[in-house]
Amino acid sequence: MEVPFNLIEYLENLLKAEAKKTESFTEEGFTPDVKIAESHFGDFQANGVLGYAKKLKKNPKELGIQLLERVQQTPLFHEKMLQVELSGPGFLNFKQTPLFLCEWLKRYHDQLALKRAASSFYAGEKISIDYSSPNTAKQMHVGHMRSMIIGEAIQRLLSFCGAKMVRDNHIGDWGTQFGILIMAIKYFNYDLDATHEDALEDLEMLYKKGNELFESDPTYQEIARNELVKLQQEDSQNFALWQKISTVSYSAFQEIYDLVGTQFDVVLGESFYRDKVDRVYKELLETGVAQESQGALVVFHPNPNPAEKPYPMIIRKKDGASNYAATDLATVLFHTEVTGVNQMVYVTDGRQQDHFKYLFMTVDKWFKGKGYSEPKFRHAWFGTILGEDGKAIKTRKGTPIKLKELLNEAVERAYRIVENKNPTLPQDYKQKVAKVVGIGAIKYADLVQNRTSDYVFSWDKILSFEGNTAPYLLYAIARIHSIFRKAGVHIEFSNIHPSLFETPEEIALAKKIMLFAIVLFQTLEDLRPHFLCTYLYELAGSFSTFYNLNRVIVEDTSVRDRRLLLCKSTLEILETGLHLLGLETLQEM
Ligand code: ARG
């Protein structure tokens, strides 16, 4: 009998199937509702019998017993891998035996086996994920960090669980601001071809100055508008300038992506859709989803409060220009038709919740009207990073913190810590550790928070070796590596003959380990990486307790093997977990 990877999923399916064969359950509407048990009665609990019995006005205990008797005849229960009991008014309590735990670990103790098992979850799904997505002609600052970090983690998790991913960097590279910028470039004679140390900073400055001109005098408004029209008509000079702006911006972004290890499959900026919005307008008019209103093209969505006016989503401005919404609509069409995705995930700031809500509603009406098949949408939005004063994080001068500087500072600070802790490590290895710890600390601090909350950024906290931090987990991993190094044994884990787990710490650790499958799926259900972070931290804690109280390298090889199996499984899950979150790991630090 094969040991199931995700025991909750297994028990749910089993209970449903067995219930179908039981006369008292033939009515529709039975959901087993299996959860991790909080009590000492068992590891998992099915609560569904109770509600079902109530609905049918039957005795829940009787129904529970009937189901229990059937379940006991199934192989895993028959083979004493799992146990079930009826408790309370009609709960089913499930317990894993040491045999089950041992078989689970033997089967799923390395990354390959974990991935193979997990990949059934999203098999057959093709998912686009829109993350990072900064705007050109501006440097990335701290505000751009969360989309990149959370998006990277989500895409790795989905991919691990079997989805085909299309990682899309939807760069903001088109819009009215380029009229002003091009005007300023010309006015101040800025040479985009010359090499500038920080060209992106220059462009930011030029835009500011251009904007001052724009606001100061209608003549400049006219000039900027003309420059924009020329750009939109792809006038050769303006188009070339715009292209250079993109090139300069992309190469600055790439520096950051290289540093944090983010990659994309496609980089389709807003400009890519400039010739694709006409079809959107046409189809939205055809299907009656959009209407002309005061010269603009608008989709009206019902207001949740019916007494108030419907919410207007403008998709073409009065002057005929396309906007953010139009581009996003064209993007949906592109990804469903051309890249062939059936799900789309967006990772942005929480302030864009309304935008995406109305976007998804518009697509729903439009695609239904045209008979297109609709993708499943998910908006994984996030809160703000705060400074220690509780306000959006800023430099002392009150300007946004540049992302590049923040990342560099993390590596520098981590270097000082490594130097302090382990001065004898070779210089270049120290540098490597500093990078893994520094960048890892920034990423982990972001992921460990529920993404929808704001959080306070504190160097001391994120770089601490105590608490749920990257340094703590990286250190836990290095420690297990050193156990293997010191043991000096090479173990072929597919060939060991462990005895069954016995001590309370062994059993507690094994139970924690097998929860990985369940946590992975819960994390993806909600696209909330912090579930995985919490789990990894608890796993490292269970390991610590186990390791403090159980000697691993003992004479009895059957005991040694089962303990090494626990070490190995913990190590693989900690490493796999951190890699899924986008962190690198180390064997020694
Ligand atoms: N460029 C936008 C910004 O900086 C984010 C784009 C998000 N993606 C999208 N498809 N709208 O706010």
Summarize the structure.
By secondary structure, the protein is an alpha/beta fold. The chain folds into four domains: 7-96, Arginyl tRNA synthetase N-terminal domain (Gyrase A, domain 2, 2-Layer Sandwich), CATH 3.30.1360; 127-170 and 272-379, Rossmann fold (3-Layer(aba) Sandwich), CATH 3.40.50.620; 177-267, no CATH class; 403-580, Isoleucyl-tRNA Synthetase, Domain 1, CATH 1.10.730.10.
The bound ligands are:
arginine
What Rg do the Cα atoms give? 28 Å
Number of distinct beta strands: 13
Q: CATH first level of the largest domain: which class?
A: Mainly Alpha
Estimated share of beta-strand residues: 5-15%
Helix content range: 40-55%
CATH topology of the largest domain: Isoleucyl-tRNA Synthetase, Domain 1
Q: How do the strands line up in the largest sheet?
A: 1-2-4-3
Structural class: alpha/beta
Kindly report the name of the CATH homologous superfamily of the largest domain.
Answer: Isoleucyl-tRNA Synthetase, Domain 1
Q: Count the domains.
A: 4
Cα end-to-end separation: 41 Å
How would the global form be characterised?
A: globular
CATH architecture of the largest domain: Orthogonal Bundle
Biggest beta-sheet profile: 4 strands, antiparallel
Helix count equals 21
